[in-house]
Design a protein that fits this description.
The protein has a single domain, classed as Divalent-metal-dependent TIM barrel enzymes (TIM Barrel, Alpha-Beta Barrel), CATH 3.20.20.150. It is 43% helix and 16% strand. α4 packs across α5 and α9 runs parallel beside α10. The longest helix has 23 residues. The radius of gyration is 21 Å and the shape is globular.
Amino acid sequence: MNRRSFLASTFATAAASTIRAATPSLPIGLDHFSVRATGWKAAQYIDYAASLKLNSIFLSELGVFENFEDAYLKSLKEQAHKANLQVYVGTGSVCESSNTWKAANGTGVDHLALTIKIAKALGSPIARCYLGNQKDRSTDGGIAKHIENTIKAIKANQSRAEAESIKIAIENHAGDMQSAELRELIEVAGKGYVGANIDPGNAVWALEEPMKHLEVLGPVTVCSSVRDSMLWEGENGAVVVQWTAIGEGLIDFKAYAKRFAELAPGVPLQVETISGFARPFEITQDDFWSIFPGHRDSDMFKAWLALAKKGKKIDSFKAPDGPGKKDAEIAYQKGECERSFAWLKANV
């Protein structure tokens, strides 16, 4: 090879390397709640994620742990490390005024502190929690009161999270907060140690179109729990929503995944399929809008409604009664998440 050919080859190799390095990676993971009917504990969920050759496992509830002792948590970390799995850790509500709050957890501050401790022990970069659900929007003081209480629990843990280099990830959960509300919560609490656990399925429950929702929260996203959604026009002007496996709903997940990787580089797209049931939203009833003031005229709602006009009714799932009911539920849940992984691996 002469000098000119050698240099051309070297530059081509360097250019190719630069292109590869500039291409955003998209790790794929499992949110354990996808296969909740199994009743497994953390070690079994780790084994299942390993069998699917994923990049991460999101243990999104503390109930999956047998205990919180150091030796046990260390064993789980080692198990995940051997399987090349990044562990993500989460819990439920830390808002004591929410209808979802569990008094048995102590205080919101202490419960979040425990979650951070477990996250640190398992090498999780985040400690996920949430406010509540859509019912909280109908309470005295509306969602603003609950947002304020959530921020208090978060801020009380700022020094702990910063000392452990762990970000507190707040999920848009079950229609509790819309994207602008969660973004404001994160900015008020402090973006340096707080981010979003983005969930496009829950976005649909908050009458938000997932791609537009991603544009708002993507830049502050540090974790995810994702699924697809089907919407259709139901009786008396209602819009019906049913969550689905990825690739079987209305979200353009190829475009979603691409934009997700651009806005939140390195954050895994973690599948949390919760399928099989439909929920109607009575959008023609004036009293419905009391929990979403001003949203009716927004571009976000118009985009959500446009999805419904493209959708079609799909059947719900109900496991047959009898001794095989649990096995049927497990098989259904595994099918939903495994089809989602197959679709993602083939298309993104």
